[in-house]
Amino acid sequence: MKGLFFVIGLLMIVECSMAQVSLPNTIYAKYTDDAIQLDGRLNEPMWENAVRISNFTQRELNVGEPATEKTEVAIVYTANTLYIGFWGFDREPDNLVAREMKRDFNWGVEDNFEVIIDTYDDDRNGFLFVINPNGARADAQILNNGRSFNKFWNGVWDTRTAITNEGWFAEIAIPFSTLKFKTNLDQQVWGINFERNIRRKREQLLWQGWSRDSELELLNRAGTLTDLDSIKSKNFIEIKPYSIGGAELTPGKSEGQLNAGGDINYLITPTLRMNLTINTDFAQVEADRQQINLTRFPLFFPEQREFFLEGQDYFDMGMGNRIIPFYSRRIGLAEDRTRVPLIAGARILGKMKNTTLGALSMQTASRDSIPSTNYTVVSWRQDVLKQSSIGILSANKYENERWHSTTGGYGLYSTSELFGDKNLNIGASFTQNFNSDNFDARANAHRIYLSYPNDKVEFDMAWQRSATPFNPEVGFLRRENFQEFYAELEWKPRPKNHLKWIRQFSFKGLDMNYFIFDDTGDLQSFFYEIRPLGFETRSGEFFEFNLQRRAEGLREPFEISEGIVIPEGEYWYNRLEIQAATFSGRNLALDTYFNWGNFFTGKSTETTYELSWRASRYLKIGANFEKNWIDLPEGSFETYLVGNRFEYALNPNLFGSLFSQWNSEDEEAIFNFRLQWIPIIGADFFFIVNQAYDTSGNSWTLERTTILGKLIWRFVI
């Protein structure tokens, strides 16, 4: 163990370098009273007079070298709106990679321009805005200096782009009402940074912080935006009512649906927002992606509802993904994933000086045997030192005159300046159950972890424990009654003189997850992986080969499939794994996964294929197929999971998808058609058709059809 830590320390020191700053590192905004026509042409006089910055540097592929294509940015503003001008010169504009137009597009595979703005100027939190040459928009909230990334936040802003024989150009308009910032200042000084990606070259350009151990989301590496001194007060009330109508059709029965409700958003302070929601409905949410479970542990389904996704990072206490004290899908969804009506709720999110606050209270209606329930979650986080924090989280449920709480605290020491510009995170969390009808001091969980996430050397280790009686009723446990010991060390060198077609290798000699039952200390599960070879090419292809050692300790017989039972006992076995993928930004992309070898008392093989075809910027077609072959002395069986998706977009404000899936375990096929129209920025219209078929017989039987239309409008007073 001493030798291991010596090697890690040596590699850290070898990789030491200072964070990169490109001068000038300040961009000056210019005030204008003139009207700006949002068309991407950048031909108004104020753009000619604005101060442009052009000192962009490569982070990829050739770190530290100048941009191969001229890139310029300027900022002007009116009393109500911030405008960002982008000049993306390109000597081959016909080769731009821009095949998406929908809102919140997958910008990781497109030519794009990204802006991150730290309006608090605290080097921790910011707003990310992304566009591509088609005018597609995406955005996200960044918290904790890039450690939390909420892509489900949707701000009110707009953009227009233009492609000419000189490249592509854009104007971005961000109302100040979309941003949160202190107003009791004579002049605003914000953190800001810019990134441009030229996909055909795999070239990534940053204005500031272009170290490979940095990234755009590390706000402490950003530059400075200044000269914002004529901004009007932005106190406002936003009202977003909705109406919904449609029908649910089942064999021999038709039931109409008509509903209305809405949200009211109010800025308590310029940086603290309150949201009230009445008769909340999530009819526009896409169906969960089906999963096949060959383990004895419950499946985890991610949150899909925008209302809960928008603030999820405020309610994260660093427990990882095995112990989740607050799991928002407990609210408004039953165990079988059917909907429970939401009567009303209130939420407060924001920041006051060095304190980040989050509070949520929702009341559900009764349904069948499910009682009306109140869910209340409170989070407080305090900034300490330059990048660190401490906080508390309390998730509570009240039903049938019984109160349950999962409450705890956490702390995080974080720095991105170790050995100059390396990243290091050290954290700890503790949470305890409280019940009005009983209290068990042993009903708690905790986690301690260390992470060194850097470009060439990545090291992580953690210990966590969920005691036998611990049960977070508003949370989620992937395992119960366990302790986990985890460690991972990965070395990712980049060849310089030979094998130049490879961008980066990945070698892993340590990747271990060791689980024991907390009450006895007996083996629960074991996983160890060695990666003798993994790499990504400069053109974006990916490959890795892994050797695995696994074990399961069964306290009781495990029925893995109907009629096939694995006896209790301890099982150790070896497996092999290959993963390979072509660059996902290509017109035709393929992602494959193979895992095979021993499995409990027999053998199994798992294969997965995902194919994506970008037919044009208007149409994208995807298909996925998963199959498991399981051969055990107790019996043999196969499982299948099939899905496909058609995504279409007529323009950046009119787009949708057709999604279908089927798996052999549930013997049910699901079809989901979704159309979204944005008539004005901030408003949405959805048209949804959902169908479910029973495939257990020799033919498909239609179980239900749901047809809905939903209109959400936005008023600001």
Name the features.
nine-stranded mixed β-sheet, 3 helices, mainly beta, 717 residues
Notes on the structure:
With 717 residues, the protein is mostly beta strands. Helix content is 3%, strand content 56%. The chain contains three helices and 44 strands. The strands form five sheets. The chain has a 24-stranded antiparallel β-barrel. A hairpin with an 8-residue loop joins β24 and β25 (444-453). The longest helix has 13 residues, at 2-14. The relative contact order is 0.10. The model is unreliable at 3-18 (pLDDT under 50).
Outline:
3% of the residues lie in helices and 56% in strands.
Overall morphology: globular
Structural class comes to mainly beta
Residues in β-strands, percent: over 45%
The DSSP helix count reads 3
Radius of gyration over C-alpha positions, nearest whole angstrom:
26 Å
Catalogue the unreliable spans: 3-18
Mean pLDDT: 91
Main sheet characteristics:
24 strands, antiparallel, barrel
* Total DSSP E strands: 44
Proportion in helices: under 10%
Intertermini distance: 63 Å
Any chance you could write out the topology, listing elements then pairs?
Blueprint: H1 2-14, E1 26-28, E2 30-31, H2 45-49, E3 57-60, E4 71-77, E5 81-89, E6 112-118, E7 126-131, E8 137-143, E9 148-150, E10 158-164, E11 167-175, E12 188-198, E13 203-206, E14 223-228, E15 237-250, E16 253-269, E17 272-278, H3 306-309, E18 323-324, E19 342-352, E20 355-364, E21 373-384, E22 388-399, E23 402-418, E24 422-435, E25 444-453, E26 457-466, E27 476-477, E28 482-491, E29 502-505, E30 507-517, E31 523-537, E32 542-554, E33 558-561, E34 564-566, E35 569-581, E36 588-599, E37 602-616, E38 619-632, E39 635-651, E40 654-663, E41 668-677, E42 684-694, E43 701-712, E44 715-716
Parallel strand pairs: 1-14, 2-4
Antiparallel strand pairs: 3-13, 4-5, 5-11, 6-7, 6-12, 7-8, 8-9, 10-11, 12-13, 12-14, 15-16, 15-43, 15-44, 16-17, 17-19, 18-27, 19-20, 20-21, 21-22, 22-23, 23-24, 24-25, 25-26, 26-28, 28-30, 29-31, 30-31, 31-32, 32-35, 33-34, 35-36, 36-37, 37-38, 38-39, 39-40, 40-41, 41-42, 42-43
